[in-house]
Design a protein that fits this description.
- By secondary structure, the protein is α/β, with parallel strands linked by helices.
- The chain has one domain: TIM Barrel (Alpha-Beta Barrel), CATH 3.20.20.
- Helix content is 50%, strand content 11%.
- The chain is built from 15 helices and 9 strands.
- It has a 7-stranded parallel sheet. A two-stranded antiparallel sheet has the order 2-3.
- The radius of gyration is 19 Å and the shape is globular.
Length: 343
């Protein structure tokens, strides 16, 4: 059976424009909160294939998105490379021993050994595929090497990125070694996700905007492209989505063998279409806060549809859905995307 989402990723004609949301399996859903409470904490939920499968499928059943995205976290990768990860309530993720030196880096597990430790993710994928409707796609994902490295170097989320940015200018050799080691693990991790059954890969560069445009290719984009090239060589039929957040200044310099470019909400869709629309399918890009108002949601969906005309496009938010959005407003967004784009 054809999956409309996969067809859209490959630029094929579809009966309507498919839609999914970043963070669609999450805290705005009471069902998710119930499963998370049962798990006890976030990491336990990620490590439990039955529960991770359950929360992956919830938004497909409840709000009727066209694709499920694997429930996991980008930081399971550095965690399985040997970094001690905890999620502190109200503060987010923390690593107890950040990577600041060659010696710190050498203590990390790399390559196949690290990728093989993520068995719970591969088990989750197999469980989801057994239960997911055949016409719905399953998206697997990873953080980009730069985004992962920011957490590994800073030891937690940051607003300034001062430690990893200091490394860009004062010790670029070490930063490149960190990025290369992470890239090798991510390539194998995504390969194993594909072998377990995912239909589409998305690479999130959540902290792309932390790097000045003239340094962006060197410290982030080229590593993302390396991952995409590696996967495309092995699995040419698997679509790849690149999502670098906050880089409208970089659009002229986008290159690489991938299929879909995720447009964040700060980048005008017209600009993305003008610069990239002939080479890549575009995904996005409604401002997530519009979900607080049904009227504002409809207005944005109609505007985006007007720009894209239902061609070479996937509806999505320009970043993740926020925890206090009403479920009925999320449903309204999905319904409106389907309504305005029906051929």
């Amino acid at each position: 059976m054809n999956k409309i989402f996969v067809d859209a990723c490959l630029g094929k004609e579809t009966p309507y424009t498919p839609v999914w949301m970043m963070r669609q399996a999450g805290r705005y859903l009471p069902e998710y909160m119930a499963t998370r409470a049962k798990a006890g904490d976030f990491l336990t939920l990620c490590h439990n294939p039955q529960m991770a499968c359950e929360v992956t499928l919830q938004p497909v059943d409840i709000i009727n998105v066209d694709a499920a995205i694997l429930f996991s976290d980008i930081l399971v990768v550095p965690n399985e490379m040997g970094m001690d990860l905890s999620f502190v309530k109200g503060e987010g993720p923390k690593f107890s021993h950040p990577i600041r030196s060659e010696a710190d880096l050498e203590r990390l597990i790399g390559g196949e050994e690290a990728a093989n430790r993520l068995t719970y993710v591969y088990e989750t994928i197999k469980l989801i595929k057994a239960k997911l409707s055949e016409d719905k796609a399953l998206i697997g994902f990873t953080g980009s090497p730069w985004t992962l490295a920011t957490y590994m170097i800073e030891g937690e989320g940051t607003k300034t990125y001062s430690i990893c940015k200091k490394m860009i200018y004062s010790n670029p050799e070490l930063l490149h070694k960190i990025l290369a080691k992470v890239t090798e693990v991510v390539k194998l991790y995504m390969q194993k996700q594909i072998e377990s059954g995912i239909d589409v890969v998305q690479i999130f560069d959540s902290w792309a905007a932390a790097i000045e445009p003239s340094k962006y290719d060197e410290f982030s984009w080229k590593y993302m492209v390396e991952i995409a090239e590696y996967l495309k060589e092995k699995y040419p039929q698997i679509p790849i989505i690149m999502f670098p957040k906050g880089v409208p200044a970089f659009l002229d310099k986008v290159y690489g063998n991938f299929d879909v470019f995720g447009v964040d909400w700060s980048t005008p869709m017209e600009l993305a279409k003008e610069k990239l629309g002939d080479r890549y399918v575009l995904q996005g890009n409604m401002e997530p806060c519009r979900l607080y108002s049904k009227e504002a949601t409809t207005e944005a969906v109609e505007d985006i549809q007007h720009v894209m005309q239902g061609k070479r496009h996937i509806f999505n938010l320009g970043h993740g859905i926020l925890p206090d959005v009403l479920v009925e407003n999320a449903k309204h967004f999905i319904q409106e995307c389907h309504r305005v784009s029906k051929k």
